[in-house]
Amino acid sequence: MASSSKLNAKIPEGTLEQKWTKYRSNVHLVNPANKRSLEIIVVGSGLAGSSAAASLAEMGYKVKVFCFQDSPRRAHSIAAQGGINAAKNYQNDGDSVYRLFYDTIKGGDYRAREANVHRLAEISGSIIDQCGAQGVPFAREYGGTLSNRSFGGTQVQRTFYAAGQTGQQLLLGAYSALQRQIGMGAVKLFARHEMMEVVKIDGKARGIIARDLITGKLERHFGHAVLLCTGGYGNVFYLSTNAMGCNVTAAWKAHKNGAFFGNPCYTQIHPTCIPVSGDHQSKLTLMSESLRNDGRIWTSKIQNDARKPNDIPDEERDYFLERRYPAFGNLVPRDVASRAAKERCDAGFGSGASKMAVYLDFAANTERYGKIETTKHNLHNPSKEEIIRLGKAVIKEKYGNLFDMYKQITGEDPYEVPMRIYPAVHYTMGGLWVDYNLMTTVPGLFALGEANFSDHGANRLGASALMQGLADGYFVIPYTIGDYLSEEIRTKTISTDNEAFLIAEAKVQDHIHKLMNIKGSKPVDHFHKRLGKIMWEKCGMARNKEGLNWAISEITSLRKEFWSDVCVPGEANEFNPELEKASRVADFLELGELMCIDALDRKESCGGHFREEYQTEEGEALRDDKNYAYVAAWEYKNESDFKLHKEELNYENIKIAQRSYK
Amino acid sequence: MSQGNMNLTLKVWKQKNKNEKGRFETFDAKGISPDMSFLEMFDVVNERLISSGKEPIAFDHDCREGICGMCSMYINGRPHGPKQGVTTCQLHMRSFKDGDTIVVEPWRSAAFPVIKDLAVNRSSFDRIIASGGFVSVNTGNAKDANNILIPKHDADDAFNAAACIGCGACVAACKNSSAMLFVSAKVSQLALLPQGQFEKKERVLNMVKQMDEEGFGNCTNTGACEAECPKSISLENIARMNREYLKASFS
Amino acid sequence: MSEKSFFLSSSIGKKIAMGLTGLFLISFLIVHVSVNSCIFINDGGITFNTAAHFMATNPIIRIIELGLFAGLILHIIFALLLTIENKKARPVGYQKINGSANSNWYSRSMGILGSLLLIFLVVHLAHFWIDTKIAVFTGKADEHNTFNEMKKVFSVWYIVALYLIGVGSLLFHILHGFQSAFQTLGLNHKKYTPIIKKTGLWFSIIVCLLFASMPVAIFAELIK
Questions:
Q1: Which of C96, C104, C107 to mutate to test the interface with B (most CBs of B within 10 A)?
Q2: Which of A512, A641, A643, B168 has its CA 20 to 30 A from that of C104?
Q3: Is B177's CB within 8 Å of C90's CB?
Q4: What's the predicted TM-score (pTM) here?
Q5: Which fold has domain A16-266+429-485?
Q6: Of B235, B63, B75, which Cα lies nearest the Cα of B165?
């Protein structure tokens, strides 16, 4: 297999360990005076967007930031709970850059680029340093040093955290750096603005059309480069752990303007979410992976067991992850844990009203912690109650906010009864195809963070999303953008009255006009829910040829129905959340089809992509490295017409092996 | 559509935009399930409004898991409704009784102008952070993170202050629409950490100045903000900010 | 604008001015209640009159008295400024407010309580202070018998009732004001704040009970 001629990953020469160092020493630079006249548009204000915008502004570039929320601080990075990985080896437990690199490649089921992942692992330590310096209140030990915990798919403790709110604290750190630049006038903020179109001039990205969500006015903005930091597309499933506003619109518009879409079918289903309680449900809530440090996952050994969990004796419980994967136990990677839970539920061992849930039980570790506490406090012959009470206090300190959230949502007290959990859509490894510089196939158009496809292969390890978002923003793009912008120093600011801007704006205007004038009978959510159901059932945790083909035709007809029967109330020139949703769902209806096409094309199982036709006898994912060790980069040709380009993945430093956590 | 057995009456503030006058309108919310969140109940009401050709109620929301700080309803006389320590998106209908009439209003503050219906503009908070809510450290300047040792106790206190989600419930709850709890949470977080020491003085002076310019009211220590804060940010932070401000003003 | 003048125009600066003047006025209450409590010796007002005479004529007390008035006026001015700003900060009010869910009624009613106190103060000064002043300025301070005057004023039931309302307002005003002043001055501490709050509570109750019992005791002729 050879890579498509249209895909040049621009991976630097040299040994794996030296690529990034050498690259940084040789990359073209832009001198400070020229930086002042170069404008950069950043779309999205999550970890990747805020960190990129702040860092680029610090360097002297003129930056404009766009976010659809009312403040950059609301971006969904804020909801990440568990932590952020870094190869600091503070715990002296054998961690290293290589091990983080290796774990990430293996965790991604050998479908990520070696050079990118190694760079990520190299940078990981600096991220912690930077965040620490900003005043991010990481958890600490009594001696004042930083604390770590473990996450899935690793055997070292390398996850830094701030209670169950790590994403919030990291984002607020990046946000304050961004606000500092805004205060200094180096960044101009456009909150409650949605990017509606990319503007290309002579083949290069030169700006965007944005809609002011309060007034409905379309605006034209020029930039020498455009950075899309717009997150993932998990909301194509309607129900996911994403925020309600998360969308694919920016990435999809870029795709339709020539940016290839990489591995769209790689979706992460997170194993520990609160199960669906009814049709009214608008979103799913994650229970952090960190809970698997101390929670044991089980089902009853008896099918359709109607007993309450606390009435099921230990010998009648099936700790299926510990049984199937003794080496990693409850800390297997997310895709493996999710599939195992689905397998149990499908086989009739699930619990709860819908039978689609497994237990996450803290009783054993509550008791263990309780015993440690009694020893610490020199309590001799403590009663069982005393041990449990002390143990609960430890659990509360570690996971208090998560337990409270669980109780608030379900009405059940997880200190007393095991949590009920079920997998849910959480993250999308796929995204815009980018080269080593994070540039898409459109010159001048970059994609950072979850919006790109680059670092996680077919499955992301826990606590790596925060790492990647911040790596891209703080430490990659400030260097790699120079490679492009050093060639642009002679490009003067282009007037937004340029024809390309006018055409792009007219196109958006037309799109909005169409949506407003269908005046059909059904609200946007109706279509979104139906799309989500198709995607979840046929392109979710398990996929097969027949189902995917069916899904493609269903989505095509649903899309037709949408464009003839959707009802968007209100006006276009006002604050109109329904119009925002309609425009986003219109894009999801196109993306969903591409995801199914990609899933259909990939005739193997790997990571989050599980094709029922391709599995081992024990039901594990069966990869086909000979034929599918490539990145699928899809080019948009026309509606329902996508062309596949392959980027071959070469593993020079890691021996590809069957992924085993047994 | 989801079935439930609760029937409620909603009295909701409707306002077309910031320039036009608003008024209360009454809506029926029938067949509501107690397992729905308050916002999901609004989804149901809105879906029915749209289906019957009427305009839905505009409200802000995003993460729906209590962390982004975007949702902002003043429900039955309290920001984020009757339950303590939760945001509106995490408030569930089981906290209400069948037959209840629920009054829903936007955050009220001169510094939070209404955009439409229940959605308000909270950019004033961003401007306060931009005036000093940061540590001036450019990317790449940091030394190894473990070179800064921080007592666990201080780190925990800083974290508790930093847990603020910037929703504005403190302002909404305060009879004076004061933003002291929000501002003090950020001042405190950074005042408690060694990283924040160098800019301590300018930070508190600038942030308070910006807060005053935005048109927030003055703190009279009623404690309503702390009681209504979904993240239980402590009044201690306000005292700490007062202290910092005094020190900064006279040194 | 200089830093100092900005300090008093800032929200926190004004609040601190409120807190400081408030504490100053509270300290006056201690003196006032101590002197007046002399009537409970029940010696026909001899001790009380001596103390009152000292307070009315001692030059140092005279100077402090000026400071007291200045403090009171500043307290009122800053209260007005703050209240006007607070009203402006919420141009459109709520239709339904469930204030009791998050705060004490008296904490939310400092303006009303303060206004009641001010009205009471005017009456109170008219009853006692003006006569004493006239006596001092006309050189008749030695003949002036404040105790008798007290007996005269408190022989009318509605005046006693008015005083009780005044003292009631004072009780709730300082119930909030005492601990609030410490919070405003930044004196909030996990260990000490509960002590401050308790002190404030008992201080308010004891001082106001003593004040309230004076007109009542005289009206009931328990003090002769």
A1: C96
A2: B168
A3: yes
A4: 0.96
A5: FAD/NAD(P)-binding domain (3.50.50)
A6: B63
